[in-house]
Write a structure and sequence with these properties.
Blueprint: E1 4-9, H1 15-22, E2 29-35, E3 48-53, H2 55-73, E4 77-83, E5 85-88, E6 94-100, H3 103-120, E7 123-129, E8 132-135
Length: 140
């Protein structure tokens, strides 16, 4: 059985499925990060977000992040799921859930995974406003 669950989908992400995947009797800690679409940036009101991916490369990078986290932090399992397409305020674009025998490893691995995902995975975000739109990071 695999100890990683990597997914990019246009369907609604499911925290319960990620939690169920990482649950293990040998683990005393499960940590989850759930990113949500907020209604504003520093300067403008956001109406919705759009996520575009280079899916083949993104899946490989997410798998690599998971494998590094497994080795570096002595965790048991990790789920990294990301949405693509148009998302509304309150929707969930990313879920990362980690289980480990001890809580500190789970916290550190979860933080490592989200920070590294945002830096290295080819997923691009476009913010939509009432008066236009802007790519937040490099264009796809």
């Amino acid at each position: 059985m695999s100890n990683t669950s990597i997914k990019i989908t246009s369907e609604k992400l499911n925290l319960d499925k990620c939690y169920e995947f990482v649950t293990d009797d040998s683990c005393g800690g499960i940590v989850a990060f759930v990113g949500t679409v907020r209604n504003s940036t520093q300067k403008k009101e956001v109406i919705q977000l759009e996520f575009s991916t280079y899916q083949t490369m993104a899946i490989k990078e997410m798998q690599y992040i998971a494998e590094v986290a497994l080795k570096k932090f002595s965790i048991k399992k990790i789920a990294i799921h990301h949405a693509e397409g148009m998302l509304q305020i309150g929707d969930i674009p990313v879920i990362i859930v980690v289980s480990a025998p001890h809580r500190k490893a789970a916290f550190e691995a979860c933080e490592f995974a989200i920070d590294t995902l945002k830096e290295t995975v080819p997923i691009w975000k476009k913010e939509h406003f009432s008066d236009g739109e802007v790519w937040v990071n490099a264009h796809p």
